[in-house]
Structures
1.
Amino acid sequence: MIRFEPLAAQGADAIDALLDTAFGPERRGRTAYAIRRGMAWMTDLSFASFSTENGAMTGLLQSWPIALHGPDGVQTPLVMVGPVAVLPGQQGSGEGRALMDRLVEEAARVTDEPLMMIGDPGYYQRFWGFTAEGTGQWQAPGPFEAHRLLARLSRPGGHPLPHAGMLGPRPVVSA
Ligand SMILES: CC(C)(COP(=O)(O)OP(=O)(O)OC[C@H]1O[C@@H](n2cnc3c(N)ncnc32)[C@H](O)[C@@H]1OP(=O)(O)O)[C@@H](O)C(=O)NCCC(=O)NCCS
């Protein structure tokens, strides 16, 4: 039985420790981190999961507000999904799927913005239909493998995928 809580209910140290265990401390050098640099994760689309009885967090998923900065100066908001992380001892028992199911369901409820991520198509395309088909002309501020740059609409009829541009943080609009 997997239980969820908002990730915001977890401490920053616990989140960092889980991510270090799943990805290693060099994770901060990844292109995904450069894309969302300076952004705060989205509290309504970030979750903690618990699959053991001892009360410790065993998995988490974060989502980030980013944008595709088009050549014409137009900035299209996107939701960047990830990291998705499950502790090694708990992997392979459906916790990652449960986290992603939760994200996809919640995103369809709260946003029109397309979802994107850098991840394995063997996982994210197979279960949730993320695909690199529409991202061929997207660029990023660091190296990435084109077949792993994935996107999907948040829901049918949601904002369409932007065509071309550079991924980066979403500019903050002051009131
Ligand atoms: C990737 C990760 C989140 C998946 O979570 P998980 O709970 O281990 O996976 P699940 O139990 O939900 O897997 C369900 C299925 O997907 C498959 N799968 C898991 N990870 C996969 C991957 N990276 N690529 C392809 N298939 C994968 C499993 O083999 C399983 O297949 P089956 O149903 O045919 O047996 C987890 O393994 C993890 O944290 N890995 C280290 C960090 C990482 O690489 N995160 C992803 C990048 S953001």
2.
Amino acid sequence: MKPIYYGKQTIDKDDIDAVVQVLNSELITTGPKAKEFEKVIAKQTNARYCVAVSNGTAALHLGSLALLNKKDKVLTTPNSFLATSNSILYVGAKPVFVDICEDGSIDFGLCEKELKKDNTIKAIYAVSFSGKPLNQEKLAYLKEKYKVKILCDNAHSIGSTFQGCSDISTYSFHPVKNITTGEGGAITTNSKEIYEKLLSLRNHGMVKTDDMLPWEYEMTSLGFNYRITDFQCALGLSQLKKLDNFLEKRREIAKFYHDGLKNTPVKPMYDYDNTSAYHLFVVQYPFEDLEQKAQFFKDMQKRGIILQLHYIPINQQPYYKDLGYGNEKTPVMDKYYLQSFSLPIYPILTKEEQKYILQNLKECLSA
Ligand SMILES: Cc1ncc(COP(=O)(O)O)c(C=O)c1O
């Protein structure tokens, strides 16, 4: 049996044909397919505008350039991939780590406490962790009451999340995500001003208008080359057609795990939720210490099941510790780090593999 990883792309002949078609055409980088992809993502997420970029980290970087100024304080979660808070550092702003709730997402109650204490906080960067939509009412309330900007990192949740109240939402199309473009990302917004800024930042900060000389362009800000190719966008468009089906499969697997783990000490992170995109299926077990947990990962690996942990608290990374982070009080995150791990979940995970995973999990944990 081949090793089973926690996530994997689902690519079929239609996807391959769509890519080949663009490779056989005149334009292979950011062109008509990118425009079409942006249109469909905007529709899918109920946003007015979308800018497709080279990856989810680039989306966060450009989002941060559009929203933040140097030294701005930003409330964010320790339970994410590094890129979420790194993007705050990229622009010289300051992440402030807030503990998480039982479902793995940032605790909005604690965010409000911080906002009450410190009226210089400028933004909240939240992650729709594992694919579960964030509570938009709470976010809208915090945005309105404390006049903060909102960025939702929706890297896990395409299909289940919408533009909502956020100023900017970002997406990743890395192969493990719910749809893939190989590498790729997108930024959505309802603001025309932000949209135009993002378009320019994606392309070296260049602006070209109809009244300019034929060869002319102006560089008005320090931008980047974060363009995405048209053959990646063709793949993305083909994948988007299957998104509903992918989500259905993910939810079926989540349901199967829920049922199979009943009456065991292995507890899913939250009750079965048919609004979650189930990018991740996180469970918790009362490990005594990290050594016991590491041994369990190794035992599972010997049986061909490569588990993952989402995530190591970002504020505990050496780079962040050197910046003075790491001593925040985050008891829920600390416990989460000890107890949690992610089971494999992706559309082409077979029923036999799902059964094999549960059987081995129970054996390795004597559950
Ligand atoms: C929550 C989150 N944010 C951002 C990213 C970065 O996306 P990318 O790998 O496309 O740069 C990821 C990807 O792993 C992610 O999971």
3.
Amino acid sequence: MLPRKRHSLQSQVVRYARTRALPGIFLCCSLGLSITSALDEKDGPSGSSSLSHMTHTFLLEEEKVWVNIYEGRRPGLTFVNLHDNENTSAEAAKVYVRRHGGRLVELVHGRGREVVIRRHGILDRFDPNRIFTENGLRQTLEYFHNLSNENIAITTDFAQKLAGMVNSEEGKAIISVHNNTPGKLTIKDFQPGEWYGDDAREVFINPAEDPDDFFFTNSPSVFRALRTLRYNAALMAVDPPDRGTLGNYVHNTGGIYILVETEHGHLDRQIRMLEDLGSLLSGNSPAID
Ligand SMILES: [Zn+2]
């Protein structure tokens, strides 16, 4: 799906160390890459629900981009937070992973939504949720007027490494967590004729719910269960448009993709959505068929 050529991206994941250490202890560093690992003790002295976390540092020319991987104490669901300014969703996923295990892959760079490639103070941008196919990657670079062979190579390499960390596989659930501003992206945008109308084959809208809070999945059984629970939800088209999203990537690998979107600040709401989704995916909900 993504071209696999070598190029100038300086950061290389050369070693994946999973070590428990005191917070902030720096473990290793190698040409353009550093990995730190720590145990997050927010949940009290027992550590029974603690998170460990590891940070991978990438260099996009002069720009540092971090990928934090948080892990709970048990295996479980994989959450992904690609937009750095959508912090409510990252917090909600951390709460879930602390409680139930699993992992969160979080992109951090301090630039807001888009990731930057920086050269001599010039900032080229791309949307990190449009880079998982060659077509999407070219389109997002073009959208920001940054399309060049060099940027394609850098972004492709970054996307491949990020995809490797997400590690989508057939039958495995990958949960993409996002936040939006009121009315900007809503469940209504997945209705026929709307902006993402071609991406969905079925849409359920609960008029009593905030349209900013919704699910989007490629799994018919997850969609039906969410509908039974009266959540706003859209079911992905069998052959959705190639936008280069994480959804395209997971769908193409045969994985189960679920996007969970809420308005910024709806932390309790997003936690509840993740809890209900977790119950569905673990078969512990009467709504799943
Ligand atoms: Zn987002």
